[in-house]
Amino acid sequence: MNEIVIFITAPKEEEAVALARGLVEAKLAGCVNIVKNIRSIYRWKGTIEDDQEVLLIAKTKRDLFPSVEAKVKEMHSYSVPEIIAVPIIEGSRDYIGWLNDVVG
Question: How many domains is the chain partitioned into structurally?
């Protein structure tokens, strides 16, 4: 399968919505879910940070990852945004067919 899920975090819901719309409008993702109120604990520049963030879950194709990454970096407020892809190893034939019809 060539389909992937990409996890992206954003600092605020408004930015997450803009990112999601940008990816779907550019046909770089078929669907982007927005999960509010996640808590992220991470190391940044030598300190431990503890922040509220928003998680985006984008469904797309593996060969579109470089374009998704470029679009997210262009639109994102973080200097190093989280953009992590994982393969879809199984999926509903109908959903996967739809996904392939609507993305790039």
Answer: 1
pTM: 0.95
Query: Contact 86/5 with Cβ under 8 angstroms?
Result: yes
**3-state helix vs strand vs coil in the chain, percent to 5:** 35, 40, 25
CATH of the domain at 53: 3.30.70.120
- Nearest residue to 23 via CA among 2, 1, 5, 38: 5
CA pair distance 45, 43, nearest whole angstrom? 7
Question: And the tokens for 44?
Answer: 């940044």
Per-residue pLDDT of the chain (104 residues; tens, 9 = 90+): 799 999 999 999 999 999 999 999 999 999 999 999 999 999 999 999 999 999 999 999 999 999 999 999 999 999 999 999 999 999 999 999 999 999 98
34 vs 67: CA distance, rounded Å: 20
